[in-house]
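Query protein
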Amino acid sequence: MDKSMENAIRFISQELSANPRANRSKLIEEASQKFDLDPKQTEFLVNKYILNQ
């Protein structure tokens, strides 16, 4: 896994730890932009944080 994905997962996990009711879609969108993720990486995050709750 590349560094940008590690950072994105760490970012989303920390945000959800601080606020479990945070909007996951917005967190994924923010992480995608912040860490310059490609569409496949963003799709992975959607699968991990939204579809597999």
Summary: The chain has a mean pLDDT of 96. Residues 3-51 form one domain. The chain is about 75% helix and 0% strand.
